[in-house]
Amino acid sequence: KRSITQKNFLCKRGKLSLRGKSDKRINFSVCSPGSVGEIDEKYIKQIRRLDNYTDQILYYIRSNYSENDYLIKEVGLNKAVGEVLIKNRDDLLENKINIQVDLNNYSVFTDSKWFQFILNQIINNSIKYKKNNNSFINITAHEEKDKIILSVYDNGIGIPSKDIKRVFDKS
Question: In whole angstroms, what is the distance from residue 86 CA to residue 152 CA?
């Protein structure tokens, strides 16, 4: 039996972003014992979950002072939604979720960070509560009078009717 110091380790370098006042970035390495070319996906999945939980914590803390944190500007929906989907790419592929997007090149005035945070939470819940087969997420935008309506629909298991009133509660 080889000791741990004799094993080969493959490290995948990445960045875990913590957004605070100074917008600091923390570097991390994921090391997996084994032969070269082998990465333990369990570690990668845990890092993605940690990244999402860190974002949640920071945004919930910041939400108490949100009036000081908004930066409203024109945001292209294709770009903003695309960035959220790329962030969730591995989970979407792993869970075999079909993505359908039709945003008609609309732009909206919003705070890009908060918009992406909220959309990311919706996408994560869609992944978490997906059906076992033929899962999909459909993201569309259409114009209605003087506003753009963004809709996110999935065919997951849904929210029990008794919990609907709590969907937008902070916890």
Answer: 16
Strand 98-102 relative to strand 136-144: parallel, antiparallel, unpaired? Answer: parallel
Q: Is the pTM of this model over 0.70?
A: no
Q: CB under 8 Å, gap of 24 or more: what pairs does 60-66 form? A: 60/170, 63/170, 66/114
- The angle formed by the CA atoms of residues 20, 21 and 25, to the nearest 5 degrees, is 50
Q: Which of 10-14, 41-45, 108-112, 159-163 has the lowest mean pLDDT?
A: 10-14
**Structure token digits, residue 151:** 């809709």
104's tokens: 């008609």
* For residue 151, pLDDT beyond 80: yes
Q: Which residue has the tokens 């979407």?
A: 92
Look at strands 107-111 and 147-154 and give their pairing.
unpaired
How many residues would you count in the chain?
A: 171
On whether the CB atoms of residues 104 and 142 are closer than 8 A, the answer is yes
- What is d(CA 13, CA 22) in angstroms, rounded to the nearest whole number? 22
For residues 102 and 140, the answer to whether their CB atoms sit within 8 Å is yes
Q: pLDDT (tens digit, 9 = 90+) per residue, 117-141?
A: 889 989 988 998 898 889 999 999 9
Contacts of 150 (CB under 8 A, 6+ apart): 77, 103, 108, 139, 140, 141
